[in-house]
Amino acid sequence: MRSVFLLLASFIFNFSSGYAQGSWAAIPNAPSNGRYDDMYFINDSVGFVSQDSEVFRTTDKGTTWTQISTLDSNIYYVRSIEFVNDTIGFAGLLSNALSLPGNTYKTIDGGFSWSLLQNMQINNYDGICGMAHFGNRLLAVGTYHGPAYFYKTDDFGVNWTKTDLSNLMTGLVDCYMLSYDTILISGIADSANNYNASIIKSNDGGLTWSRVYLSNTSYMEYCWKMFFRPNGLGIASVQSYGPQLIIARTVDYGNTWSTITVDTTSFQGNLGGIALQNDTLGWVFDQYDFGAWETTDGGLTWTMVNTPVIAGDRLVVLDSITTLAAGATIYRYGSSFVGVNEQPVIPVPNQHTVEIYPNPGNNKITIDAVAMRNTFGILDIADGTGKIIRRVTRQPFLKGKNTFMVEVTDLPAGVYSAVWHTNERRVAKSFSIIH
Question: Are residues 297 and 371 in the same domain?
Fold first, then answer.
């Protein structure tokens, strides 16, 4: 993986000199806590972010943030946040690592107080990864680790319908509404389609679905976040275990998509937050660490650029000159420039790690999944091409060492990887098998 220290050094040199047409800057005194996965603005000034149990609000386009409420501290991970008007909003939750399933909180007073919904039929370790609304219709999808459930309410969360989409997808990440009935959902395809990055679309409010995008690699991939311009131009980021970075691009409101190469450098392609400021200028970020790519032709070509953004996982375009990114903290792109000496020091979020022994292995290997905090996730074995060939477990992981014994007698000699995808990040460790 490309050295974070080299990227940071390069960033300081280039960022301190500024950019002619605009620049990214970390907002001083913005909240910082691991990674803020989602951000929602009800207009061009008032917005919200949440992580763990804290909910923050801004009324000045993100310049200042105030913690306005605290969710139930037993709920571990807030993945998404969405407001349908000035007062009614929802927070989608992933499971904590202990006993509670993921669920959804609702506010009716603009985020100052929240109540846990009890009527969504979310069971076991299910949860909510993405949310979207159009008018009074609200959608929720999840989770990245499965199962692939689609939830819909037309009365602000009083009643919900729940649909199992596992015939098309293994896991769901993000959803986007182009109209009251036109819906797109991103995620990972089913095993019959090699667990590739995928997007499905419905034109009848979620009654029927068709697959409109499927990546053409052999690597386990997620289509992560989506963004559309009013003219039908859309882009979607792809988290890939393969050796190159790709996105998906459409010009017809998501009816057809093409795969665009972003970078061919050989490291994992953990692309996350993505958006177009206008029909030409846009960005996509690494959702876990440093890494930023910019397009100036509407997503056809991309160039790696230096920014302070770490773990960018949601971009919000506020106006023709201002875009915000939620990540390790909140970042802003605009014509105004915040000097490098004013930049807050935001560390790279703590990383889970994977250790494997013996390596090389013969008949049996031991995998230690070391969690920096309680989390939930899936642990898989991938072959040398990056294709997932075995599910080891889908379960909570407690802080510290989680140990698994895996029989590998049936696997041919060669190079493999243990791929561990958690609520916070995805990590992998290579190992060899000899017989």
Answer: no
Average pLDDT over residues 61-76: 84
What are 252-304's pLDDT values in tens digits? 999 999 999 999 875 557 899 999 999 999 999 999 888 999 999 999 999 99
Query: Band of the pLDDT at 71, cuts 50, 70, 90?
Result: confident
Burial of 14: CB neighbours in 10 Å, binned 0-12, 13-18, 19+: middle
**Same domain assignment for residues 56 and 174:** yes
**Where is average pLDDT lowest: 35-39, 200-204, 366-370?**
35-39
Based on the fold, state whether residues 248 and 276 are members of the same structural domain.
yes
* Residue 17 within any structural domain of the chain: yes
Task: Give per-residue pLDDT as tens, 198-207.
Answer: 999 999 999 9
- Residue 133 inside a domain? The answer is yes
Same domain, residue pair 321 and 400:
no
- Per the structure, the complete domain to which residue 266 belongs is given by 4-342
Let me know if residue 347 belongs to a domain.
no
Last residue of a domain, one of 317, 342, 367: 342
Q: Is residue 234 a contact partner of residue 282, using CB atoms and an 8 Å limit?
A: no
Range with the poorest average pLDDT among 42-56, 98-112, 407-421: 98-112
Does 233 lie in the same domain as 110?
yes
**Which pTM does this prediction carry?**
0.89
Q: What is the pLDDT of residue 227?
A: 98
